[in-house]
Amino acid sequence: MRRNRLEGWLIYLRKLRRADGPTLARWMSDDVVTRYFAKDSGLRGRDGKFWEAFCGDDDDNVKFGICEKTTGEIIGIVGLFSVNWRLSCASTGLVIGVTRLWRTGRAFEAKMLCLEYCFKVLKLKYVYSIVNAKNMSAISHLRRCGYDEFNARRYSNNVCEVSEERVLTFVFRKDDWREMCKRYPLKRIRSL
Predict the structure, then answer these.
(1) φ and ψ of 124, to 5 deg
(2) What is the pLDDT of residues 102-122, one digit of tens each?
(3) Domain range for 60
(4) Which of 14, 32, 52, 149 is close enough to 21 for a disulfide, judged by CB 3.0 to 4.6 Å?
């Protein structure tokens, strides 16, 4: 048991550190990793200084580095963004920057640990995620994690790769959490 991290079977989550900035900058400059990111999201192609600042503490965002349990190598990020404490909700996001580890269960485990933190520690009521309708991997991932499709809409202001791109919104409610824990037992949060 280690302090200041959430442990899974394959990975653990820890707070992002400013020293992670250059690694995040490298991932976010990779067209394969960011192919479904919105053009004007402000995340693509930023330098290490931007990502060092991103890794700092922030009251409205909870950001974790996803680390390989065997080596300690940071392989991605997951977090709760734009936390609305009054409405008790947040947006979720996840990026696995090490492409050789895609489709290995690490993203699922990271998202489930993040949701456990969200519902058990922060006591939020629901989370949502907005994805490009062409990103079938993200859609499949969210459905496997227990998110329900909430709505579909089109953006015409170049928010996504192509003007008039269709995006989907997925929602996960705290009430559904217990059922997911029965289906996919996780190691429990040690301490944070």
Answers:
(1) -75, 160
(2) 999 999 999 999 998 999 899
(3) 5-183
(4) 52
